[in-house]
Amino acid sequence: MRVSVCVRGDWLVVPCGDPSKSMRWLGLEALRRYARAHPSEVLSSQPSFVLKRCVDGGLLDVEDSISSVLSDNDFVKLRRSTEVGNVLRLYISLDGNSLTTADLVSLGKGHYKIKHCTPLTNHLRHVAFASFDFLNLCIVVVYGVNTGFGKFARSVLVCVWAGVGAALIPERTRMLLALRINTLAKGYSGVSLETLQKMLSAFNASCLSWVPEKGTVGASGDLAPLAHLALGLMGEGQMWSPNTGWTDARTVLEGHGLTPISLKPKEGLALINGTQMMSSLGAEAVERAEAIARQADVIAALTLEVLRGTNKAFDNDIHAVRPHAGQILVAQRFRALLHSDIFPSAIAEEKPYDRVQDAYTLRCCPQVHGVANDTIAFVKKILNTELNSSTDNPLVFAERGITISGGNFHGEYPAKALDFLSIGVHELASISERRIERMCNPSLSDLPAFLVKEGGFNSGFMIAHCTAAALVSENKVLCHPASVDSLSTSAATEDHVSMGGWAARKALRVVEHVEQVLAIELLAACQALEFFRPLGTTAPLERVYELLRTVVRPWDKDRVMSSDIEVAHKLLLEEKVWKAVLPYMEQYKDSHRDHISSRTQESSPQSSNHTHYFLIRKRRENQWLVL
Q1: Quick one: which of 13, 44, 50, 43 has its CA closest to 30?
Q2: Host domain of residue 621
Q3: Do you know which InterPro entries this protein is assigned to (predicted)?
Q4: How far is CA 556 from CA 290, 518, 520, in A?
């Protein structure tokens, strides 16, 4: 048994001859190997660290045996920290205005606790006092305060506790709770500072309510899921924490020294009205979509190499005259990865390209992958706005002394965006499946049928391709927009709804299928590369091959394929394929920029009529732009 452990960005393969040893041993052995590889770095003689499983972000207890929590070829991340009981003391402040989808996913994975922000606390204390005084002295009718809902807040909350289906996994419940805290922190929901602080304490202790995934129509917000979230915080129903597992909510809270929430005016409604379920799941979907879109370019470039395609279709001038940002970005990545003066390929040099042009699945990657990138950027913008919005009803404007009933709870924005995300990212799998077919089909690839030498005795990638086709077919159904549907509810009062919860859940399923199809393409492309040996490909693509071969051996005869697909999928979930090529892409960018600059200096402005294109880096997202 062996486990790959990430220490400060370096991946170390640790053989576990005795898997009954503890996770603490695994962590110490990984640190020992890291120290041996980095003698200049000083490590503590008694290091404290946290171990997390990469595939699901699960926190691993250092006293557990390796075999009880890990499988062969699992991936684990080691984080050194000052800690209390294995929980990282890293914090993020929520102010209701600056949360991003990436931040929210990190909060869900347990990378951060939520920190009290002193200016925000003072602001909320002022708003809460003003809201509380206003709501208690209110003589006008205010929905949720002095109507039936306000008087019977708890009983109505219980009645909304009507969700069904499997519970959200802890990481997603943590995201849901964090986003609810961020929304309430804006100060327009009439929630007391005491209630908000209790929610924050529950998050930091990972006391997470049982929240079923089904039951929301996306207006008025995500009522049923948020009711389940609130009732756990009130000490009712089931709750989970790392220390207790699933048990009675009050027991979990008291076990962490916490007290249940006691509802004040307006709080019953404030805790359940909003778009946080669809938005939190959408945040995970768009972050994973962004990660797989980057890696799709790398995998497609490797496929083009083994199919002996040409890089001419990625020439800068072609894409400059159709300047969609995503298309330009993808073409730049292909130029950096494929044969060039900077990164030559022996495979490309061995036989000159003898076709007029390649198939669309190779030639049109910038156009197809590009629009997926642009779709993701659009959806991310919508969701980042939604994460920092007040989506309650009614909203309390305490300083004006009024409450206003409106429609901010309607989930049409995230619902439409997430439907668009499903449609946009699906094409990455659709075109990937066609590339897998080209590699497996000897009449199209000049490679052995199904990428295995002894085809009469072995099926090779035949059924893996069938799996990819099945996943793509499922996605075609899942891409039907949820938000075009609406059913009137609540006696025709809530007579138009968004179905945003389903849009978010199916977007996650689509993204997962895309990841799995591209995992199959990665396996197939690396297998195809075996038939070109001893010739090598470009340095960045060789690095991808080496990465996969650390966890999956070449396919010489039939064996269980599903485990290989799962391991390759883990590589993509951890963005290891992207991280493997990023230094080479940076090197290409720097070398190419220097080359263009020197050419520009040598040519005089009077004698040069052609346009020079300069590559610059958009630092925040490691993207390039052409100017």
Answers
A1: 13
A2: 589-626
A3: Aromatic_Lyase, Fumarase/histidase_N, HutH, L-Aspartase-like, Par3/HAL_N, Phe/His_NH3-lyase_AS
A4: 34, 21, 17
The mean per-residue pLDDT over the stretch 567-580 comes to 96
pLDDT at position 137: 46
User: Do 509 and 577 have their domain in common?
Assistant: yes
Choose the final residue of a domain: 41, 69, 88.
Answer: 88
Q: What is the mean pLDDT of residues 43-71?
A: 79
pLDDT of residue 108: 96
Domain boundary among 60, 88, 116: 88
What strand order describes the sheet that includes 10-15? 10-15, 2-7, 75-80, 49-53, 59-60
- The vertex-261 CA angle with 245 and 91, nearest 5°, equals 65
Residue 611 and residue 509 in one domain: no
Name the band, by pLDDT with cuts 50, 70 and 90, for residue 507.
very high
CA separation, residue 504 to residues 225, 373, 518, 583 (Å)? 13, 18, 21, 34
* 8 A C-beta contact, residue 162 and residue 272: no
Asked if residue 98 and residue 61 are part of one domain, the reply reads no
Identified catalytic residue from 91, 143, 353, 613: 143
Q: Which of 390-394, 480-484, 538-542, 550-554 has the lowest mean pLDDT?
A: 390-394
Query: What is the CATH classification number for the domain harbouring 40?
Result: 3.10.20.90
Whole-number pLDDT of residue 127: 57
Would you give the DSSP letter of residue 523? H
Q: Is 112 a catalytic residue?
A: no
**CB atoms inside a 10 Å sphere around CB 9:** 6
What's the predicted TM-score (pTM) here? Answer: 0.80
> Would you list the DSSP string of 18-40?
-TTSBHHHHHHHHHHHHHHH-TT
The chain-wide mean pLDDT, for the chain, equals 86
Phi then psi for residue 213, to 5 deg, are -80, -15
